[in-house]
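Q: Here's a chain of 169 amino acids. Please give me its 3D structure as tokens.
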Amino acid sequence: MFIIPDYQEEELATRAGDLIDRLKKDEFYLNLINIYANTFAENLWKIYGEKFGFEPYDIITKDCLRSIGEVSSKEHLGRGPRTVINAFKRACTIYKDTMNSYDVLDFVNDVLNNKVEYVQPKYVEELNRALSLNEINSEEKRNVIKFLGAFPNGISEDKIRAYGLWNAF
């Protein structure tokens, strides 16, 4: 088994591409980037639900799991599984204390208030910068910024409408 950083894998692929091909063919090749993709949070949470006998979306909403996955899977925003697990801990605490599902805005507010750790400081800085713009002068507009920041891969118009944020958008 080889464990090497991406940049060395690229170099190895240029010099000995056949080796990488054989490792993949024989199923000895595993790139953790493929495991910690933007679906990692939701997939792991569903496994926890099955294993421990709870309905996953009662504790963390599906949209929030998508958001956690998108943020955590981008190196410039999150730190992979550390971000995911830390968000899960926070969601469980909120659910235990309030019996309310942890949602997208809870996640972003917790990121902004340093209650979810293992996010990149630049992500928090950029969210705060956007929230401090003069044009963002209402709670609805603040929520639009938070909502957009929660989904770095983009969000549909329908989803913005579903959250009642279309007019502020």
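Q: Can you summarize the key feature?
A: The chain has ten helices and no strands.
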